[in-house]
Amino acid sequence: MVALALLAAGITALNVVFEFAGLQVATGAVDMSAIGVDGSDAMVLLLLDTQHHGVLIAQIFFGLWLAPLGYLAYKSGWFPRPLAVVLVVATGCYLVDVLTAFLAPDLNQLIHGFITIPCIIAEVWIAGYLLTVGVNTKKKAQAKPPVNGTFAIDEATASPVVLG
Fold first, then answer.
1. Which domain holds residue 82?
2. Is 120 within a domain?
3. Cα distance between residue 7 and residue 12, in whole Å
4. What residues contact 89, with CB distance under 8 A and at least 6 apart?
5. Tens of each residue's pLDDT in the chain, 164 residues
6. What is the Cα–Cα distance from 24 to 6, expressed in whole angstroms?
7. Does residue 150 lie in a domain region?
8. Alpha carbons 47 and 24: distance in angstroms, whole number
9. Measuring CA to CA, which residue among 36, 38, 57, 58 is closest to residue 46?
10. How many domains does the chain have?
11. For residue 157, is it within any domain?
12. What are 161's strand-pairing partners?
């Protein structure tokens, strides 16, 4: 699970190089006079497009990371069950979004706004839940047998009773 998140973070960090190079070419920090203005513009678009596709590849691993997180949230009982289910659904939505971006870009433009809604809900919900409620790790109090010579209050009569 952590390996998926680290892999996605590494890919995202590598993509910053392409974005930075595109900005350097666009602002004239790099001398591209040999290829002319049109060539320079094409180079900027190529570098930024490469960065965009790299983010999509990283999105695969960010999406896959949510599946084990949702499973663990479901099995542990520390989080609401609907949150765990939405996390797993978000995994599928991320993968569908990436696959349509690469295989059917026209379809992706139509569904991207809708397919990312469960992803946004899942990520905002888990972050908000952890910030506001936290993790419920308290076990239910188990009744301990009374120790000899201890006292308790009888709820029916409101009078002390000797236990044990």
1. 2-137
2. yes
3. 9
4. 118, 122
5. 788 888 888 998 988 998 999 999 988 888 888 888 898 899 999 999 999 999 999 999 989 999 999 999 999 888 999 999 999 999 999 999 999 999 999 999 999 999 999 999 999 999 999 998 887 666 555 556 555 656 556 566 666 655 55
6. 28
7. no
8. 10
9. 38
10. 1
11. no
12. 152
